[in-house]
């Protein structure tokens, strides 16, 4: 086991990128860690979140074999490894359909984390990404899809690309019915989102068993799938995310 070089020895999740009020957005945190493990961004990476990422606290980065972990003291917050298989692509949704679906976003009625940097209704334009995925028709296999549009104000970094792939999965699952947090995300970003380009974010349900819900997501730009992800969400008690 070795500590990574000094220029990448810690990772801090700024409060701006929160999910719940006191912890980091899972997608942003995972993407930031993945970018340290694989700076090229070419390979799919799987990140497992073991506990809520603390905000504004330097997390020590420790490399072990092919993996990398972020630690708060002795506690492992997240672990990243290269994945063998890229996530599957969720079928595209036309931009006008995705735009109309935003009016059906379940979070507009009841949102467990209105502070969330990605999908929070309590974030003002320019302060959060405001990706509001609403239900669209099921895919060709009868699986639920949700979709939204997103136009970045500036070119995105890898952490922001992962963030865009995150919450849409939760809303494709049963986040509107029970409280869940991201447990594992596997993502591959082939192209970074560009400023001024309207993107379509699509999430798809993949099933549930016990406390775990599986979903997938794809970020589309100009008709191309530029990033994909698969997620496992874990149902939690409210006191676990305060």
UniProtKB/TrEMBL annotation:
UniProt name for this protein: Thioesterase family protein
Organism: Nocardioides marinquilinus
